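input
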Amino acid sequence: MLTRTLAALLAALLTGLPLPALAEATSPKVLRYAFPIAETGFDPAQVSDLYSRTVLANIFEAPLTYSYLARPARLVPQTAESLPEASDDFRTWTVRLHPGIHFADDPAFGGKPRELVAEDYVYSVKRLYDPALKSPVLSQLENAGLLGLSELRRQALKDKTPFPYDTPVEGVRALDRYTLQFRLAAPGPRFAYVLADSGLLGAVAREVIEAYGDKIMEHPVGTGPFRLTAWKRSSRITLERNPGFREQRYAEQATPGDAPRETLARQMAGRRLPMIDRVEISIVEEAQPRLLAFLGGEHDYLDRLPPEFAPTVMPGGKLRGDLARRGVQLSSIPGPDIAYHYFAMEHPVVGGYSADKVALRRAISLAYDVQAEITLVRKGQMTPAQSLLPPAVGGYDASFRSEMSEHSLPRAKALLDLYGYVDRDGDGFRDLPDGSPLTLEYASQPDQVSRAGQDLWRRTFQSLGLRHKFVIAKWPEQIKASRAGKLMMWGVAWSAVTPDASYMLDLLYGPSKGQGNHPRFDLPAYNALFRRQAVLPDGPERQALMAQMKRLAVAYMPEKVTGHRMWTDLLHPWVLGYQRHPFMRENWRYMDIDLARQTRRTTR
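output
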């Protein structure tokens, strides 16, 4: 039941009346907001979900990062002194680390300062290959072809022995205390993007890993600007400024001609980073309480406006007048992501590569109304997708059209009839071609948006005469089951962390089954094209190969890609410096809280 305050806020939101007065602010500078989905933990080698990796990116640091203000995205050094040097036809990448960077203090270091050195990145990379950790992000490095590491992994699996961390390999090694070198089996023209993913290549210290063992998900220790100070699983995450963080000043530069970001760069220039003292994250799965917490001043920032409230908060695409008068800021960009519904390719009912199985998947996909999802579920906050490549990612072609966005119930029924999916026993439901019962299982979550999605899928199945049921569980349980190949169908979203199209194309690459490849799609023709495009420089030849991959994904339909979501954020006027970046997540250090303005806030 809503409290009186929350009820008043909701009434004001729905009627356009002035919002009630907010509580007074207190120092220190605290950024408060909510995740809509629970985290899984805080070890770079063991998590792949967006929310855990958001936290990781602000604790751990990769050698590179992205310019916070430059658009399009541009790589810059982070713990490295400069951008890496590529040689040997992009097979060798050498990184020189900046001396004097230290890990946050931790008892594992015995009370002594612990400097970041090249061996820390060597160890961090090797952890991803350790079979005991079952890293869900390993495919990003395996696809890069680091010499010797996959062999070590296979040997450890074969012998059932601990991973040999102390065995030297060519793929990653420390040339000296501060020089790190990567060697690839084939050209890697875009390998530098891998070096900018803090959720993947954030440096960990071996002493910390060994000290905490199985509890390492609870004890992240990095070199970044924040450190974890409290964690109540699936409820609350608290991080505080790392007191030992090196001196770093705001020196961001916007792309020339980008006036708003150029102004921000001038305003923030020279400020010590990070500018805030603490970040408090709540887990609020239901959309309404999350929005009300923002409107009531309990949260400073609403990370991604729940789509069901878009018509109310931003009618016609513009922030509602009373919210604008209160100084609420609206930030909206096309997300470099895809929303999709997949079919488990190894499942005996919906999986397989035979014509009848392909027909079943394509029929279901044709019966699914993408525009209804955009209108009813996403409330207009999504654009139709034609492939698994989203905007801002290389290979995205705005002119490409495919069956992904098509809705045709007559074609869907005709396909099922043609391949023998008919009602053989007269119970009103279609059966499998061999006459056995056909029941589809769609996995979903209990939140409001997921429930709306269930209604749409129910209509889809009913329109085709397909018996179905929903398997409901919270996100952490579903993603665990999905990686294990235990779900028949599930709908998820995947956001790019790099402009390199290989990151998204990997979602259907056979060797990535159990990691990014949730459908467990494994088509030799697609796999061969993936390997060919990965070694080519950007250009027409690579574009042509990626176009072939997109067409294969449509033809076999392992997943129905429905759209690219709009990322729309709301911020109170006292939140300064915020810019949504399409790829980087380590943005907390660039944000500030105007305590005076926060304290003076009044209704109008």
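quick obs: The two ends are 28 Å apart (CA to CA).
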